Amino acid sequence: MSSLEGRVYTVTGAASGIGQAVAVRLVELGAAGLALSDVNMGNLEKTKALCDSAGKAKIVLSRVDVSDPAQVEKWVDDTVREFGRLDGAANVAGIAGGDGETTCATIKQEDWDKMLAVNLNGVMFCMRAQLPHLPRPGGSIVNVSSTSGLRGLPHNAAYATSKFGVVGLTESAAGEFGRQGIRINALLPGPIDTPIFRDGEAKGLFNSEITSAATCLGRMGQPHEVAKVLCFMMTDDSSYVTGGMFCVLCLPPP
Ligand SMILES: NC(=O)c1ccc[n+]([C@@H]2O[C@H](COP(=O)([O-])OP(=O)(O)OC[C@H]3O[C@@H](n4cnc5c(N)ncnc54)[C@H](O)[C@@H]3O)[C@@H](O)[C@H]2O)c1
């Protein structure tokens, strides 16, 4: 795969799971600098340690709640000031499930609002802050949706709605910025073995055995398997790929 030498990326949700694996993979591919953010600073330090073992990139950590547009804007502006450039962004941060009371008849207003604020508004706030700074041509954004962004999931209406939204947002933005040479793609993971899935399973929202059996490959995926696909879309090897929806561990057709 072509190298990311000299390039600078932002990653949200970098303290855990897929975001953490993406940060490490970007370093492995030769990125010069990473601005990593999350609401969990303790775990973000662990990601920095993993990145430092993987290569030589300069790593800057920030506490950013993606549902707050002012925090997102400041973080992206600070990143450009610090590194002097921004080549791409992995918008990964997300949440799943409220307290388990999630039918459309009973979901709590605050759970609905929070899901859309983090998973959908958060991606929009990131793209709005990132797009003005990306190189034209050459910029690349990947927004993390879910296979629940293709097919509704009972008892997970807010989650599925937020992830359908990420697909619509990504396709729309790809059409707006493609002629300027900026590529914007969506990544749709299936069941991946990370805290978000295990926490949802503990609340009875997901079941790893049933979900694994329903995938084409018959197992859950690992974060590094998602990171490899996501980071391919940051490289020039995907130069004719935009507005795409990439399923990582697809569900079989209905
Ligand atoms: N694991 C799966 O099965 C799966 C499947 C499909 C999609 N996804 C998506 O992948 C993305 C990453 O999830 P993961 O599996 O790595 O889970 P994870 O829980 O390991 O990581 C999510 C990270 O997002 C951070 N985060 C939560 N709210 C935030 C906020 N308001 N601002 C900033 N950071 C915040 C968390 O602190 C955490 O570090 C999410 O968008 C998730 O919806 C995951």
TrEMBL record:
The lineage of its organism: Eukaryota, Fungi, Dikarya, Ascomycota, Pezizomycotina. Keywords: NADP. This is Uncharacterized protein. Gene3D superfamilies: NAD(P)-binding Rossmann-like Domain. It comes from the Eukaryota. It comes from Bionectria ochroleuca. Belongs to the short-chain dehydrogenases/reductases (SDR) family.
